[in-house]
Amino acid sequence: MKSNENRIYEIMIIVVSLAMAIFHIYTATFGVLTALLQRSIHLGFGLTIIYLLAMREAKSIINKIISLIALIFGLAAIFYLGFNFESLTIRFGQLTFFDILFGTALILVVLDVTRRVLGWTLPTIAIFFLVYAFIGPYLPGILEHRGYSLNRIINQLYLTTTGIFGVPMGVSANYIFLFMLMGGFLVATGAGDFYIDIANAAFGRSRGGPGKVAVMARALFGTNSGSGVANVVSTGAVTIPLMKRLGYEDDFSSAIVAAASTGGQIMPPVMGSAAFVMAEFMGVPYYEVVKAAFITAAIYFISMYMTVHFEAVRLNLGTIRSEETLKLKEILRSRWFYSLPLVVLTILLIAFKWTPMKVGVYTIAVTIGVGLWGKRGEFGVKEIIDAIKKSAKTSLIVISSCATAGIVIGIISLTGLGLKFSSLMIAGSGGSMYLLLILVMLSSVVLGMGLSTTPAYLILAVLAAPAIEKIGGVSTMAAHMFVFYFGCLSLITPPVATASYAAAGIAGCNPIKTGITATRIALPAFIVPYLFVSNQALLFQGTLFNIAVTMILAIVSAIAFSAAIVGWFVTETTIYERILLFVAAIVMIDQNIITTLIGLIVFGVIALIQSKRKGVLNSKEKQSLKEA
C-alpha cells in the first residue's frame, strides 16, 4: 500500500517537473511573461514539488493534511494573481479582503517551504524583518520608522515585484533554473565524469595526483549543481579515498575537496546561482560578472593546485599507479564531444554576449544532443526525465531562498533600513575603508553560516554594498563581488561549514579540523577581495596592459601564498621565510608599483636562498650515502 502511494507521489513529482522544464524552456525561447506572472508560476512549481515531497515523506496523516492545505492555499494565492492580474494593476494600492487573505497565506507558505528546505535560519530572519515593519514607531534611534499596516506590507510583498516576486525570484525564474537543468543533463550524459577523467589523465600521474585531480576537476567543470555540498560529494567520493591511500592526511584530503568545491561558485563561466542574482541586481550583463571573476578565480585555483603540490613534496608522496589512470589522448579521441556544452556556453556567453536565458536553452539542446550521440542506447527518454526531475529538486533550495530573501529585501526597501544600515556601518567603521570591509566580511561569513550563498549575498548586497561604494568610492562590481566572495567562503569556515562537514563525512575525520584546514588552504580567497577593492585590474577592469601584468603577478602571488600556507617552497621554509612569502604574495598584487617590486624581489631572493640550501642538503645526502 505504502509503495503504491509513493509511486503515485513520484509520478506527480515527475509530471510537475516536466511541466516546469517545458514552461521555462518555452518562455526562454519565445519570450517571458509579465514579470509578476513569470515569477509567480515559477514559485508555484517549486511549492508544488516541495509539498509533494513532504506528503510522500510524512509519517502521519495529520502531517500530510497540513502539507496539502498549505499547498492548496499557496497555489490559490498564485492562481488569484494570475486571474486578477489586470484588475490588480488598475486598483493598485487598494486592497480587498481576498488580496489580504491570499497575500498573508502566500507569505506564510513561503516561510514554511523555506523552513522545510533550508531549516529555520532564513525564515527566522524574515520573521524578524516582518515584525520590524510593524513596530517601527516604538524603536529607538536609527531603527525607528513610522510603521506600516498589514495592507501596505501585503501590497509590497505580494502584489508588486519588490517583495516575494522581486529581483531574486526573477533571476531564479529566468536564468538559474535553466542552468540547473543544463547541469542535470551534463551529469546524466556523463560529461561530469569526462571532466574528472580529463583531470585524472592530465594530473593523476604527477606527484600527489589525486589532490590535483580534485582541484582541477572542479576548476574545469565549475559548479554543476548550484550546491557546494553536492559538488563535494560528486568529486570527493572518487578523489578523497585515493588521496588517503596515497598518504595525504585525512583532514587535508577532505579540506582540499571542500575548498575546491566551494571555489566552483567563483569559477567562470558557470558560477554559483548568486552570480546570476548579482548581475541582475547590478543591472549588468552576466558576462561582465564572469569577466570580473576570471583573475581572482585563477588565483584561487592556482594557489590551491600549488598547495597540493607543495604538500605532496613535503610528505614525499608518490603518484597514482599508471593502470589507475586513463591516457589523455584516448579520452579526448573517444569522448571529445563531451566538451561541446561548456565550449558552446563559453563562446555564446563571452564572445557573442548572448543573454544567459538564450545561452541556457541552446546549451541544454547541445547537451541533450551530446548525450544521445555519446551514450547511444544508454541515454534516452527515461534518462532525460530523470535528469529533469533531479534538476527540479535541486532548484528548490534556490526558489525557496529567493522567495524568502524577497520578503527581507521588500521590508528593507519599504522601511528605508538599507540606507540607515549603511550609515550605521560607516559610522561604526569611523570612516576607515578597511575596518568597514572587515565588518562586512564578518557579517558575510556569519550570515553564510546559517544561509546558502544566494540569500546571504542578497541581504548584504542591500545592506552593506552601498556603504562600501560610498566610503571607498569603489566600483559597484568590486563592492558586490566582495560580499559575494565571503558569502561563498562561509561554506568552509567553522563552526558551521556545510561543505567541510560533507567532505569530512567521506574522509571519516573531524569536521571542525577539516574546516580549519580548508580555511587555511583557501586563505588567498580571504585576502584577494581586500585587494580587488583597490586594484580594479584584478576584476579585469582597466587597460589590457594592466590586466596582463596583473594576471602574471597573480600567478606568482598564488605560488607565494601556497608556499607560505604549506611551509615548503624549493625546500622546507623557515618561519621567517613563510611570513615573508605571505607578505610578498599580498603586496605584489597591490596597485602600488614600489610594493609590487618589493614583493617580487622578496619572492626571488627566497627562491635563490632556498635553491642554494637545497643544493647543500642534496650534497650532504650524497656524501652520507657514500660514507655508508
Structure characterization notes:
The chain is mainly alpha-helical and 628 residues long. Among the domains are: 2-125; 553-628, no CATH class. The protein has helices at residues 2-30, 35-57, 61-83, 85-90, 97-118, 121-135, 150-158, 167-189, 191-203, 209-221, 228-246, 250-263, 273-282, 286-314, 328-335, 340-351, 356-374, 381-415, 417-428, 433-450, 453-463, 465-472, 476-489, 498-507, 511-521, 523-532, 544-566, 575-587, 593-627. The longest helix has 35 residues, at 381-415. The radius of gyration is 26 Å and the shape is globular. The model is unreliable at 623-628 (pLDDT under 50).
In terms of DSSP E residues, the strand content is: under 5%
Shape: globular
Rg: 26 Å
Helix content: over 70%
Distance between the ends:
78 Å
**Total beta-strand segments:** 0
Element order: H for helix, E for strand = HHHHHHHHHHHHHHHHHHHHHHHHHHHHH
Derived from helix and strand composition plus strand pairing, the structural class reads: mainly alpha
Main sheet record? none
Mean pLDDT: 88
Number of helices: 29
Low-confidence stretches: 623-628
Structure characteristics:
628 residues; mainly alpha; 0% strand; globular; disordered C terminus
Question: In brief, what are we looking at here?
Answer:
The chain has helices at 2-30, 35-57, 61-83, 85-90, 97-118, 121-135, 150-158, 167-189, 191-203, 209-221, 228-246, 250-263, 273-282, 286-314, 328-335, 340-351, 356-374, 381-415, 417-428, 433-450, 453-463, 465-472, 476-489, 498-507, 511-521, 523-532, 544-566, 575-587, 593-627. With 628 residues, the protein is mainly α.
